[in-house]
Amino acid sequence: MKLQVIKHLTNFIEENDEDFVIETIETLEALTEVPSLKDEELDVIGELISNMYGAIEVQKAVKEGVSQKEALNSFMKRVMGSIDK
Question: How far apart are CA 5 and CA 14, in angstroms?
């Protein structure tokens, strides 16, 4: 996951609508079923999907009154904590 991508997507959700990102995730998930995709291509799609889910989580925290910076930092700490386990 890339913090700058998540931040950018969070701003996109704030300016537009979360539904755009959700529909994009669904589209990308459908693409992962194409049998001719290479592992590298699947990795890129997976990374995009992860960043989009992250942005949705951060945006939910922002809607609850958490600053964007704090929400981003908290999210990344959770991600890093789950990787360390």
Answer: 14
Full-model pTM: 0.88
What three-state secondary structure class fits 13? Answer: helix
Question: Could you report how far apart the first and last alpha carbons of the chain are, in Å?
Answer: 17
- Tens-place pLDDT, residues 26-80: 999 999 999 999 999 999 999 999 999 999 999 999 999 999 999 999 998 888 7
Q: Which of 62, 39, 50 minimizes the C-alpha distance to 2? A: 50
Non-local CB neighbours of 6 within 8 Å, separated by 6+ positions? 51, 54, 55, 58, 72, 75
Amino acid code (one letter) for 34: V
23-28: long-range pairs with CB below 8 Å, 24+:
24/52, 25/49, 25/52, 25/53, 28/52
